Amino acid sequence: MDIRPLRYFLAIAKSASFTRAAEQLQVAQPAVSMAIKKLETDLGLTLIHRSDRKISLTDEGKRLLLHAEKITQAVDDALLEMRELKGLNQGEVRVGIPSMLGSYYFPPILMAFRHRYPSINLKVIEGGTWQLQRMLEQGELDLSVIVAETLPEGLETHRLLKEEMRVTVAKDHPFSQQESITPEAFFDEELVMFKEGYFHRRVVDNLAKTTGKQPNIGFETNLIPLIKSITQQGFGVSTLLSMVVENDDKLISRPFNPPIWLDLSIAWRKGAYLSQANQAFLDFVCEQGQPNNDL
After folding, report:
1. Looking at residue 124, what is its pLDDT?
2. Over residues 255-269, mean pLDDT
3. Which residues form the HTH lysR-type domain (predicted)?
């Protein structure tokens, strides 16, 4: 089977449009339509519902989509490995990093890596850990930092560090007079939170379910400086990684009672070929981790 129709099929499935798929692929739309029609003829199945206003996959198309993603990724991995054996390494790393770590943990690591490997191009994508994990599984990223609650199926991980989530308040907030904060007391306050899809928010949502409390979220933003500013001015309380607040003398942080610790790991697809550039980045980042933290 020619691999190109599968690539065309994937582009249509993701964009829900023959026109947009052709634009992304930089191919004439009739060529895309003919390739999909031939693919359907070869398989003896209808893969796509066609209408003037909406494109959607049939049940058979949805099943093929699962295989097409794996097949095209395997082909891409094989081609990359063959190019590197011929000395044609492109030297690019596509890595996903959550915003808190991107702002406070990774900048010196990324700069040090670039200093050691100046010819390798770093493409850093910021997002929520669950979005980044999905992008990694779909082959849109080579590596990604995730919060490893459980080992995701299909991914390999290496733990980078263990970090505490701390309740963060203004200096004059009553919490500043306490040694630790219970989840119940935390959820009695108006909260300043990241949006859904970020590990910061997921931790709080899971804690609320365990506690049986409904979070009172007054502000939602993924901008860390804004979260800190709102909290500092007393318009709510938040929870941030200790690395974010440890050197901020305008805010007070206290541990939860009991404490909340997160295992932050770097992940890659299980069994996937890592290019020389990606392996170099993975090894470098793992060297910077904190493997001796107590579990």
Report:
1. 93
2. 91
3. 1-58
